[in-house]
Amino acid sequence: MELICPAGTPAALKSAVEAGADAVYCGFADETNARNFPGLNFSREQLREGVALAHRRGAKVLVAINTFPRAGAVDLWHRAVDDAVKAGADALILADVGLMDYTARRHPEQRLHVSVQAAAANVDAIAFYVENFGARRVVLPRVLSVPEIAEITRETACETEVFVFGGLCVMAEGRCSLSSYATGKSPNMQGVCSPPSHVVYQETPQGTTSRLGGFTINRFGRNEPAGYPTLCKGRFSTAQGAGYLFEDPVSLDATTLLAGLREAGVTALKIEGRQRGRAYVDGVVRHFRSVLAALDAGLSTEAPGLTAFTEGQATTQGAYRKTWR
Amino acid sequence: MQLTLGPVLYNWQPERWRDFYFRIADEAPVDRVVVGEVVCSKRAPFFEPYLPEVIERLAAAGKQVLLGSLVLVSLRRERRQTASLAEFGDGLVEVNDLTCLKSIAGRPHAIGPFVNIYNEASAAFHAAKGATRICLPPELPLSSVAAIAGAVPQVAIEVFAFGRVPLAISARCYHARLHKLAKDNCRFVCEQDPDGLVVTTLEDQAFLNMNGVQTLSHACSNLLGDLDRLKQGGVRSLRLSPQACDMVAVSRQFQAVLAGRVEAEAAELCLRELYPDVPFANGFLHGAPGASYVSA
């Protein structure tokens, strides 16, 4: 199984490649990619250099152009596709059917991956992307259990890529407007979720209150660390009870499921976190590299050591375990 | 401009569901009605026995009937269910996930608000595959709506104009989770909340509404004050999404404004009485936070 690693910056790309990534994924520093945060991502020049560096080390570069082009401004996304192809990208990760159509026509030789943002969660949906655009790989949405993934890989010739570590979207990706509802900024359109520009922390007698776009997302006691107010991982109330109604502040960690994912026929494992620094990239990539090596050697894959890189020092196996639902 | 009644998103008692549509057929001035379970496949068996008579009654009343497809399809059973929509006689299927395009590609169909059509290129792609109607995703601003409508004049463009806005869909059932149940053994607790369960912040701001695997806005979309802009933007139809309020009366207010019989402000006052205690919102259309209301 290939190890696909996040590269939010050229420095992270270098770290990931040195730590043993088979491929890195990255995007341009604009609204064409779904991690459009200030200070992150690549210029055209940086991408060319990044591709050259990765290729020298035998690693691939996958370019995510995975927001949905703004109506009337699709040229910006077309340019991103053209420039990524020109820079030598090994694959483009796309979500929008119009953009896939453009890419398949204009660059028929270019390898095309279906972004998790396209939410292709079953064999028929995947077949749509394969038949219409020649998609070679699909990044599966985080809504499937391991047996369901195995069924998909059995029934489709398309390669599958799954998330194994990092931030966990609990809503089907590409189909969530929660952030847009609270802040006016959207993962699908602007490439941001719960953007820092809309976050406010306030000290109150009850403790630290975190708000997003004016909505209270959480409140922390005096000695409790105040986590980031990601909307779906906030504390809310209903007539039936209060708490983390959607998901606790946890990270996904599928380390112990790798053998099952390999058996399920998964082609590639993806680590989330383009907004994270070099230490994260280095630590997480090395961890998974060693677990995969152990797996290949038939050794135990019980490898602790990722707690420091998780949210709230807690992890979940998310939808991979059916009971999560 | 026409009116479309979207599918009931909530888990209503089957008889209530049937009677709701009977009354819509008899009394509501809507041009078309989308029926079918689109949120949770586990609920579908409850409504299916009533579906034929509901479709017949609506059709007999002169309404165009569309059959909506499931939003999130992951199980084999759900794929079969989705594929079977292709057998829906002469009626249009409203596609809410690309899964069902396989069985209906090339045939005329509608695209629902859960398919990501954010630009004219995607709209044109789907039009070439047979889409004759597209209800756009609710988060699109008017500038995008107008650009899309202008680029595909052969397609009837619709916007989400009334009702709590569907914001997210998940593999996890939040209703079940709240009641400490697993999704597979959920006991259909979502039926306890026929208008969704209000989710408030820790500071008591009403924020969202929980509906099983779906998360809706707490605020009710209301584009009554934006109708002129929508007309100029080339929008041909408004979607009214069923809430647990008098939807016949709601549709009459919209129709009265469209026909020029009632001013939007007066109709809005009526809507506030018909659906009390729920704030209105139109922020998405104005490129603002979706929860906000931008005055004309």
TrEMBL record, chain A:
GO terms for molecular function: 4 iron, 4 sulfur cluster binding; metal ion binding. [4Fe-4S] cluster binds at residues 169, 176, 193, 232. Pathway: Cofactor biosynthesis; ubiquinone biosynthesis. It comes from the Bacteria. GO terms for biological process: ubiquinone biosynthetic process. Pfam families: Peptidase_U32. The keyword Metal-binding applies. The keyword Metal-binding applies. InterPro entries: Peptidase_U32, RNA/ubiquinone_mod_enzymes, UbiU. Its cofactor is [4Fe-4S] cluster. Signal peptide: none annotated. Keywords: 4Fe-4S, Iron, Iron-sulfur, Metal-binding, Ubiquinone biosynthesis. Required for O(2)-independent ubiquinone (coenzyme Q) biosynthesis. Together with UbiV, is essential for the C6-hydroxylation reaction in the oxygen-independent ubiquinone biosynthesis pathway. Forms a heterodimer with UbiV. Belongs to the peptidase U32 family. UbiU subfamily. This is Ubiquinone biosynthesis protein UbiU. It comes from Bradyrhizobium oligotrophicum S58. The lineage of its organism: Bacteria, Pseudomonadati, Pseudomonadota, Alphaproteobacteria, Hyphomicrobiales. The gene is ubiU.
Automatic annotation (TrEMBL), chain B:
Pathway: Cofactor biosynthesis; ubiquinone biosynthesis. Keywords: 4Fe-4S, Hydrolase, Iron, Iron-sulfur, Metal-binding, Protease, Ubiquinone biosynthesis. Its cofactor is [4Fe-4S] cluster. [4Fe-4S] cluster binds at residues 40, 173, 186, 190. The keyword Cytoplasm does not apply. It comes from the Bacteria. HAMAP family: UbiV. Required for O(2)-independent ubiquinone (coenzyme Q) biosynthesis. Together with UbiU, is essential for the C6-hydroxylation reaction in the oxygen-independent ubiquinone biosynthesis pathway. Belongs to the peptidase U32 family. UbiV subfamily. NCBIfam families: PRK15447.1. Forms a heterodimer with UbiU. This is Ubiquinone biosynthesis protein UbiV. It comes from Bradyrhizobium oligotrophicum S58. The gene is ubiV.
